Amino acid sequence: MKSVEKGKLSGLNLTPRKRERQTDPEKLFRSLTLRGGVENIWEPQAAALRQWYARRTESRTILEMNTGGGKTLIALLIAQSLVNETRGKVLYVCPTIQLIEQTRLQARQCGLETAAYYGSNWKDEDVFMESRGPCVTNYSALCKGKSIFRRQQPDALILDDAHVVSSSIRSSFTLRFKADTDLFTEIVSLFRPYFEKAGYAQQFASLQDGDPIPLLFVPSFEVNRRWQQLTKLLKDGGVDDEKSTLFVWEHLKDRLDRCCIFISASAVEITPADPPISALPQLSDCPRVIYMTATQPSPVQFARTFGRIAPNVIRPAGKSGEAQRLFVFADGETDEEQREWTRRLIRTRKSCIIGASRTHADRWASEATLYLGDTGNAGLEKFKKAQPPEKLVMAARYDGIDLPGDSCRILVLDGLPLGSSMIDRFTDEVLHVEGIRASSTAIRVTQAIGRIFRSNTDHGVVILCGTDLQKWISAPQSQAHLPDLLQRHLQLALDLRDLVKNKETTYEDLMNGILTGDRDWDRLYGAIGEYDSEERPAPPGWLIAAAGKENLAFGLLWNGNFPEAAQHLALLADEVETHDRGLGAWHRHWLGFAQKRLSQPIAALQSYTSAANERGQLGRPKVSSKTVMASDSTRTPGSQAKAIASLAQDIPSAQKILAKVKRDLVYGSDTKSTEAAFHDLGRLLGLSASRPDNTKPKKTGPDVLWRFVPAKAGVALELKTDKKTGSQYTKKEDIGQFHDHVQYLVKVHSGEEFLKVIVGRLLAVSCESHPPDDLRIIELEEFQKLASRVTELYEFINSSTDGDALSVRAQRWVEFLGLQWPKCMEGLAFSLASDLQRGETTANEVL
């Protein structure tokens, strides 16, 4: 070893590094050397810091500030405070790589040290490892399988844009195969036999032809039967080798049997029923988590994700982030007319366009550059520096993209924002869980609007394009879910729209006013404080409690604790179905899965069937009379069962009529025979059936009417079984006709409540139509399956050897087969006509 010459170190001196120990974030800020645009902190920011510091020992805290309210600086100061206090490892988590770099830039400008980790690479790793500053990372790095932060257990987490936590966790547990991949084709082929035997052949064929509307759920009993084949298929397809899938595969590889599988025209998704937070100890076991957000997460979504009631919220008062906004309602009766009007309005102006789907985004391809996610960051930076009339279009990117100040002052929202995953769409459009839907949509709308408003000075224009978006955002019950200031902006916008309609001003003049800081505009905007806003409606207590219990039950299921999972799911289903039958059916379906895994086949069959009776899309297993009789008890017959028993005295005649019904329930031009089949099907269900539109002399009313007189209820059926694929339901011939039927029902059957149903293909509803909010579109195949169950009903009544009276047998099978009113209708798969108005807006088209 080479010796060091004497005296060589004599001139060296050390200055021991003093570790920062300041934990008060306000004092910490005052000690910083500021080199960027931050000169001071506003009072709302200071109030937020003081409130957090007073409660800093709480394990979970939500800190909500307006978009543009200086949230990043507050989060950085809190992160550094926690580093100083814990002498440990603190993560600052962002949705995108762009926001990682943006956060680090602000930290450097404030004299704060940070590390960064994303894309499996470190920057300034020593800052994090030596606990000198936080590590700024993204949700993908935090949540993915084999995450390094599972080994580097953080002492605290700052979760920015906290409303995306749930979707970010889910994406880390979701395999998605697009329609142009071999794995998509192979997975579809694997489950094709089930759907064809289950009566979904037509939907399956439409899906394969590229129809964006059908969304098929593979029932858990079918996944359980095929999961080993699916595992081999995926491994042979290289999911454990491809970078895009291997980290998700790490989570799913041993649990495919308990995953949900959804199939659409554009993709297959494999995902857990609930994001399993227990599989992410770096998140679930973290001592302290701060959720930074401009849009408070729904208490229901928070409980569903984390299994606990949302913590108290810090929401400082003040004017931070209170930018001036002008909302413009695009003119036109159809979506395309509104797009053309918008194109003319922004022709010479620099604008960002956010489409609700890739289909929406593609409609702007001739005049705008398409943003393609993280690979398009260079394009985003280029757009920020570009001059008018440059335009950028994004497909369903409602967060993680910031275009502050002069980089963009005009935003176009094309279409109502939808969820980014198929399970979101399934919850909205199949289970119809309304308590979740409204708040989720409000969060997406708020985030979309926030893309160009990042400070008090970020005045700008938001153009609302699309009948579905305008209808949603104009409704007071929708606005109530939005932040206070945004509600006021929209009320001002509605008044300004009236001024434009009355030709007292134009949108061009209003836009020029806000963009140039015109005094007359400032005078108009000065009225903003005079508008009222509604307090954000709290979800019902039962739904919040159920969400937490759901998280626990699905966590037990995910970890293979089937006995406890079954116990919790049974209690949950009983509690929930009295409030929301769709959500209760979802829980009961998974109860059936747990019971099947516990070798309880009869109990599983009953649970699966009960779930299908409420929501047919959940799947109905094959039943036999002997299996059910083994666990059945004596029933007390009701009026519907007694009516069926009367018909069952002549089984051959009933079976003959049913055979003809099944032959005539077909699409085609001969609607009269189909109407007659519907009439006979209703009668064989034990209901009062008539054909008002075929009754002389007036011939008015719906094609077929089923009534359950004891409940003063029924269903009005208008048959559109002659419409061709690729057509649509029109304003005059289809939707307008149903408005006439509603008047008929009020006049002829006053005091009775009727379901409103169009029977036909799942086609788009014309944008200029105004369908009743509760108008359902039900495919003919659903009634074909209903007729098959009615056939089983009479067969089982006839084959029973128990000696019970016909009415008792009828009651037993009416209940078990889901044929009792109103389940015989409520259990049929349907789409709301209002949802089909945005048929082009499907979540599975999102990039």
Give me the secondary-structure topology:
Blueprint: H1 25-30, H2 43-54, E1 60-64, H3 71-86, E2 90-94, H4 97-109, E3 115-118, E4 121-123, H5 125-129, E5 135-138, H6 139-143, H7 148-151, E6 156-159, H8 165-171, E7 175-178, H9 182-197, H10 201-208, E8 216-218, H11 220-236, H12 243-252, E9 259-263, E10 267-272, H13 281-284, E11 288-293, H14 299-306, E12 313-314, E13 325-329, H15 335-345, E14 351-355, H16 358-362, E15 369-370, H17 377-385, E16 391-395, E17 410-414, H18 422-429, H19 434-449, E18 460-465, H20 467-474, H21 476-479, H22 484-501, H23 507-516, H24 519-525, H25 541-558, H26 562-576, H27 581-597, H28 601-614, H29 625-629, H30 639-648, H31 651-664, H32 671-684, E19 688-690, E20 704-708, E21 713-719, E22 728-729, H33 731-748, E23 753-759, E24 764-765, E25 775-778, H34 780-799, H35 806-816, H36 823-826, E26 831-832, H37 833-836
Helix pairs in contact: 2-3, 9-11, 14-25, 25-26, 26-27, 27-28, 30-35, 31-32, 31-34, 34-35
